[in-house]
Amino acid sequence: MQSSAILLFIATVAGFLFYTTPVALGILAGGSIAIINFVWQRRTLRQLLDSQAPPTASSATLRYLLRLSITAVILYAVLTSGHFSIIALLVGLSVIVAVIIALTLYSAFYKGD
Asked: pTM of the prediction?
């Protein structure tokens, strides 16, 4: 999570320095949504795995749909506001994926020695 926040910070600053404000805001919004969604999903999964009583399928499904719905509403608001670059929003949403790929490559090439 820290690596994702660092990458998001660097990408947002680069957006402000080398591109326009809507690009930087798009990266920031997309990355923030991705990170918050990932943390929320991780916390929910940890709660489900740590609980002694097995969760019902309906409660797990309800939590998933709630998270997905809130994410969709936020994305809709961001997209329809007109203040954010859509391409930059997609770049920001890819922050988690980029960090996972980078850490996987690092582990494959440098940790194997």
From this structure: 0.81
